[in-house]
Amino acid sequence: MKKVYVAPMAGVTDYTYRRIMSQFNPDLIFTEMVSVNAVEMANDKTIKQILRLLPNDSVQIFGKDIEIMKRSAKFVESLGVKHIDVNMGCPMPKITKNGYGAAMLEDPEHARKLMLALRECLNPETNLSMKIRIGYKEHKDPVRMAEIAKEAGCTHITVHGRTREQMYSGTADWEIIREIKEVSELPVIGNGDIFTPEDALERVEKTGVDGVMLARGIYGNPWLIAQVKEILNEGEVKTHYTVDDKIDMAIKHVEFAREDFPEKEFHFEIRKHLCWYLKGLRHASAVKARINQTESYDEIVELLEKVREANR
């Protein structure tokens, strides 16, 4: 069975959206990525918001200092988390300038020491994995990182098909992912530019990877999780959705956010999600502008219903 994972995405895979996505049964679903320095300082937002967990949530951590990484991983494990991933792929300058994320690709020996230390400190039953890019400025031996993952006892390695320098420009290079899969002794999960179930099928057939990790494709589209699982494992898409389904899901998202956040804050947490749900629908532009101005739950629902009517 091919696996379908949901990527950790800052400001996207929050508690409320994970409640939504979990209904579509991804094989792994990650919280927003967690700074080990924030855990070390007991940062209130990290502990209370990002590490507010659903029963099957997995957590991705990022940092560089081995001792801090170990202490933070043990803390995450103590919350009942069964799978911890190490971020070695985030390309954002505020992350890489400190040697975190994709900057780790420039120092494979430190990455090796870190992963071995994490495996040693975690309970044997706690799964460990790592997520990388195919290189920093160029394709700089990503196979070495797969070897490190194997040596550290990882369950799998996830590979995003761009270099750090590319950020999110251009297209993901799944040919490099295929090359890693051919030599890796671990399961390889491919990531990059999967926006439709057909995208996933094409890339899995091309590379032989053991599964895919969905990221930007699930913005406003949690149905993609089920669709990709179906096409990879059953050969056809069985889950379909209508405009009514999108509006119903948007309203459910608002209701969940209202339960999950204080009354004066919930609207801030859902605005981008609602814009994603409404993308491409008639009357959406005017409604999105109004949603970004209101703090009223009733008005948000009324505006969503207006979009529904405009798309009959």
Helix and strand element order: EHEEHHEHEHHEHEHEHEHHHHH
CATH architecture label of the largest domain: Alpha-Beta Barrel
Major sheet description: 9 strands, parallel
How do the strands line up in the largest sheet? 2-1-9-8-7-6-5-4-3
What is the fold-level CATH name, i.e. the topology of the largest domain? TIM Barrel
* Rg from Cα: 20 Å
Can you count the beta strands?
9
**What oligomerization state is this entry in?**
single chain
Topology of this structure?
Layout: E1 3-6, H1 15-22, E2 28-29, E3 34-35, H2 36-40, H3 44-50, E4 59-62, H4 66-78, E5 83-88, H5 93-96, H6 108-121, E6 127-135, H7 142-151, E7 157-163, H8 174-183, E8 188-191, H9 197-207, E9 211-214, H10 223-233, H11 243-260, H12 266-278, H13 284-291, H14 297-310
Parallel strand pairs: 1-2, 1-9, 3-4, 4-5, 5-6, 6-7, 7-8, 8-9
Helix pairs in contact: 1-11, 4-6, 6-7, 9-10, 11-12, 11-14, 12-13, 13-14
Function: Catalyzes the synthesis of 5,6-dihydrouridine (D), a modified base found in the D-loop of most tRNAs, via the reduction of the C5-C6 double bond in target uridines.
EC number: 1.3.1.-
Cofactor: FMN
